[in-house]
Amino acid sequence: MSSTLERRAVPVGGLLVGEGPAVVIGGRVSLRARRGQAGAGSVAIEGATLVEPYSADDLPAIAEHADAVVVGASWTRDIPLVRAAAGLGLPVVVERRREASVAEWLELADYCAAEGDGQVILCEGGRPDLGLMRAAKVASGRPVLADVSADVGLSAAAVAAGADGLIVGSPDPALAQGTGAGTASPGAGTGSAGPGPGADRLVAEEAVVLVGALLRDEAPATLPECRQAIDRLDAALATLLERRAELAGIVQRIKPVGGFAGRDLGRERALVARMAVRAPALGEARLAPIMNAVIEAGLHLAEERAAE
């Protein structure tokens, strides 16, 4: 079992994996899927370029063009190639072999860290086992990626399970034809804007913003980072407020006496008290006017819709 318990972020291209918000990577390049028929620099990926070699002959080009090298699930037992890939000096993305246990996965990650400069990211691909992914992250302290290309609808669950980044879709035609570790599932999942990798990316980014804002701990160090973190929280808050207003509208249609005349002030006070338990720094005195404004906004919206 890995002894790397100190959490370390790993820079990959223009992204930082393992610290701050989760990241979205637009796929990966598999020279193995292409059987070595294309160069490592032939496909550019938004944010970061992750490349899986076909053979040791690909490694010099990967070192020149890629932001990280992928140790793919199908060849984790090819120790000479694993050793050579880990020794490139690039961050190493270690994908779990489907039948591998957490201990075996982390043992391989530790081996790659020892052969390279220690910058290792775990990756759970295919049909990801999110519980196992989370267990590996907790046990090792290493950043983890979830490849949700096969089902982008898993994006929110992956972020909730602790994924530090999502790999979505694939700009690589070889992977898109299903010869690689994962294939894109156009329009999969809820909230998709329509078929295609762009829509899949939007689903993943929404998961990062909404779920990540609620569940990921962040420690921004600069004013821009603080504002970006607040923007993510505000986006999640707006989504929750919209959902609350919709549910409140249903309540108004069901209640015998709806609208402002039907307000239950006792229930509202109890609501504020429960919220104060979760937000003790704000307390009931500060939360009460906030929730009064939220409730009244929902009532006004319900009345406007009833009058249409």
UniProtKB/TrEMBL annotation:
Pfam families: CM_2, DAHP_synth_1. GO terms for biological process: chorismate metabolic process. SUPFAM superfamilies: Aldolase (SSF51569), Chorismate mutase II (SSF48600). Residues 217-306 form the Chorismate mutase domain. Keywords: Transferase. Residues 177-197 are annotated as: Disordered. The keyword Transferase applies. Residues 188-197 have a biased composition (Gly residues). Transmembrane segments: none annotated. PROSITE patterns: CHORISMATE_MUT_2. Coiled coil: none annotated. One of its GO terms (molecular function) is transferase activity. This is Chorismate mutase type II. It comes from Nonomuraea fuscirosea.
